[in-house]
Amino acid sequence: MDNLLLVSNAILWVLVIGLALTVLALARQVGVLYERIAPAGALMISQGPAVGDVAPEFQLETLDGQRITLGGVPQSKKSTLLFFLSPTCPVCNTLIPVLKSIQRSESSWLDIVLASDGEVESQRSFVQRKELGQFPFVLSGELGMTYQVAKLPFAVLLDEQGVLRAKGLTNNREHLESLFEAMEQGVASIQEFMTKRRQGTA
Amino acid sequence: MLVLDPIVILLANYCVGCLFLLACYGKLSAFAVFCATLEEYRLVPARLIGTFAAIIVVAELAIGFAAFIQEFATHAMQLGAALLLVYASAIGINLVRGRRDIDCGCTGPATRQLLSGWLLLRNLGLAGIALLGAAMPSVRPLHSADLVLVGIGVLGAMALYAAINQLMANAPRLDALDSLMDTN
After folding, report:
1. Residue A38, Cα to own-chain centre: how many angstroms?
2. Is A79 helix (H, G, I), strand (E, B) or coil?
3. Secondary structure (3-state) at A104
4. pLDDT for A65-111, tens place per residue?
5. Taking Cα atoms as reference points, which of A117, A121, A85 lies closest to residue A100?
């Protein structure tokens, strides 16, 4: 009898662990499925302005009441980095010092504009807390819709002619810098860059 | 005081130990993001975020290692339960405030997990397990078979825990998908 209990216990343990691992694998698969379905939303990105297009023109008022124009040929003859962020996005917050340092080093050819949407008050206190006063800060749901911003932090790079040169999800400094790199190299994305390089070496 | 078979207590100790070590690893591997996440809880003044984040990471590390050392395990479990209850109240306060769209930060930024009632429940459950680990063990000799049992028990429990976390991370994505379908 003792022997039977022992064997049945061992078998049950094997089954329990097997089941737990199966449930874990299933849950992961469901998670991956959600990731894969996301391109159904990302298909809409192609409706947004493409790299190489002239960016649509927006007349917007910044948080401190100044009017600025986004898109079209800029009067300043500078490129513009449009950075979409939100006070509730931790990764955005980690990029704020990076933005500040980029603005310091690249101000000769680049303007940085921050964009978000939502309540004015919470955004104001966000600007104050993070000392973002040096950047024009616009609130516009329409802007985000136009560029089909689905995930934050998202950045769009417009050149001095107002042409969209690079855009994408930017989770760190390297991603941001890759946008500048893409503009310099004249490629739309890392994928296009890889394809070009492959063709070059073939 | 509650007296339990040593196996139950060892199992609870090792599970809570693994839990804290994994959580601590996730936080350390992206410390800046963890600080920003902590700030979003809006419970600590912005100036002290770095200090608090460091305290949390050190506490988790200490509890994680102490859980595997017999002399310290009871205290580690008591501290662990207290820490988990602090987390639960932080989540609860933000749920009451209606801030459900912030990241839990529980295991670092790799798995994004939004705040929810389930998360609160999970933390209370974990605190219960930690308290179980602080109970008195009944005295009996431990054989190697007992240790094997503890080992596979930890394995099974961690797999289940990871599955539960994954399901909780999935849930808001399903909601997002549903609302996308509605607008189309």
Report:
1. 14
2. strand
3. helix
4. 888 888 777 777 788 888 988 887 778 888 888 888 888 888 888 88
5. A85
Instruction: Report DSSP state, residue A59.
Output: E
Residues from chain B contacting residue A23 (CB–CB below 8 Å): 159-160, 163
Strand partners, A163: A54
Domain boundaries, given as residue ranges, for chain B: 3-183
The A residues from 35 to 54 touching B (CB cutoff 8 Å) are 37, 41
Structure tokens at B181: 């379908």
CB–CB contact B37 A90 (8 Å): yes
How close A7 gets to chain B, by Cα (Å)?
A: 13
How close is the nearest chain A Cα to the Cα of B36, in Å? Answer: 5
Which sign, positive or negative, has the C-alpha torsion B36, B41, B42, B43? Answer: negative
Residue carrying structure tokens 């460091």: B54
Among candidate residues A127, A134, A112, the one with its CA nearest the CA of residue A179? A112
Contact B101 A88 (CB under 8 A): yes
Q: Is A13 an interface residue toward B (CB < 8 Å)?
A: yes
Distance CA B43, CA A164 (A): 41
Whats the size of chain B, residue-wise? 184
Measured CA distances, A6 to A1, B21, B144 (Å): 9, 33, 15
DSSP notation for A137-179: EEE-HHHHHHTT--SSSEEEEE-TTSBEEEEEE--SHHHHHHH
Percent of chain B with pLDDT over 90: 51
Looking at residue A78, its amino acid is: K
* Predicted TM-score (pTM) of this structure: 0.70
Closest Cβ opposite residue A90 in set B103, B155, B162: B103
pLDDT at position A68: 84
Local confidence band at B181 (pLDDT 50, 70, 90 cut-offs): low
Q: Is A72 left (phi over 0), alpha (psi -120 to 50) or beta?
A: left
CB atoms within 10 A of CB B108: 21
